[in-house]
Amino acid sequence: MACRRTLQLCRTGLLRNFDRQQQLRHSRSYGRDVAIIGAPFKKGQRLAGVEQGPRVMREAGLIEKLRDLGHNVEDRGDLNFDAFKDDPRNYVLNPKAVGAATKKVSKAVEQAVRDDKLTVTLGGDHSISIGTIHGHARAEPNLCLLWIDAHADINTPLTTPSGNIHGTPLSFLVNQLKDTIPWAALPSFDWLQPCLNITDIAFVGLRDLDPGERYILQKFNITSFSIHEVDRFGIHEVIARSLEAVNPKGDRPIHMSFDIDSVDPAATGATGTPVPGGLTFREGMFIAEHVYRTGLLSALDLVEVNPEVGSRQDKVNTVMTAVEVLTACLGKKREGNLLPGYQLPMP
């Protein structure tokens, strides 16, 4: 009983300290300069439609909603990606297309971050994160990563059962896995240098792992919270522990990569690899709000929205959820917003 009480006090202290840090920082995020980059890319997996993600999120009013929060938003449009007629499988599918596309994404994100913009990249499939994280790290090498996803996406080209690169992006980026990548067989990635250490990463929401991924997480003791831990500890403590693990001093820029399939398919059925039993809409929003309150969010991906999958209502729900998460990451509060300087009008 005494040990249980001590553990509870430690948890309470951690959460209170985390909340105090957030209260001090979250005001920095008002009125940010924000860059929106569209990455309408689908070659990291097999389903058509995910390339429409940037369009449907914009059509749902994303840009206007961010401006209404007081941000100076620059929409830098969609990146154009080259098509490759001859792109045979070599361990993974479409290596030429993915290598070229992620290189272009990396350059665009690096430039936006160097321009001192909070950079939001709209996918597209999750292979684009090879580029978003690499580009962010070139501009801010001290970043840490929150990976919000049903899947760990840390298969190597030699362990992936499907060959889809959207299930492998982190293996290309992690220093400790560089020797597991058959670089010589993948010349389209010759521009890429690993830029993350395993201690830079925290996973939240995992519930569908391949054997190679399970082995990597266990071997390297990577910070990860499955949906079981979310149920056990609650989302508040899971996010507090995640940030404490990757950013204990609260001085590192945060990159958050948010796969819409992290949320339960009841709310996000329009996605390519749905897994039942996911985060609730409210838990997804809580993550976004907490990360915003740190004042440290520097770059953000929202990926795997596919309006050609599921029912018409699935599309509506999924796009709404994506836009709500994005706006919460940039300061929208469910209890309502009050911008600095607001005064009641007088008669």
Give a concise summary.
With 347 residues, the chain is α/β, with parallel strands linked by helices.
Q: What order do the helices and strands follow? A: HEHHEHEHEHEHEHHEHEH
Percent range for β-strand residues: 5-15%
Helix content: 25-40%
Overall geometric form: globular
Low-pLDDT runs of 5+ residues are 1-7, 22-27
| Beginning-to-end CA distance, first to last residue | 61 Å
β-strand number: 8
Main β-sheet: number of strands, strand sense, barrel status?
8 strands, parallel
Count of helical stretches: 11
Structural commentary:
Mean pLDDT is 93; it is low at 1-7 and 22-27. This protein has helices at 2-25, 53-59, 62-68, 95-114, 129-139, 169-173, 211-220, 227-233, 235-246, 281-294, 312-329; strands at 33-39, 72-78, 118-123, 144-148, 201-206, 223-226, 254-259, 297-303. Strands 2-1-3-8-7-4-5-6 form an eight-stranded parallel beta sheet, sandwiched between helices. It has 347 residues and is an alpha/beta fold. Helix 6 links the parallel strand 4 (144-148) and strand 5 (201-206). The chain is globular and about 75 Å long.
Which helices and strands appear, and what pairs or packs with what?
Layout: H1 2-25, E1 33-39, H2 53-59, H3 62-68, E2 72-78, H4 95-114, E3 118-123, H5 129-139, E4 144-148, H6 169-173, E5 201-206, H7 211-220, E6 223-226, H8 227-233, H9 235-246, E7 254-259, H10 281-294, E8 297-303, H11 312-329
Parallel strand pairs: 1-2, 1-3, 3-8, 4-5, 4-7, 5-6, 7-8
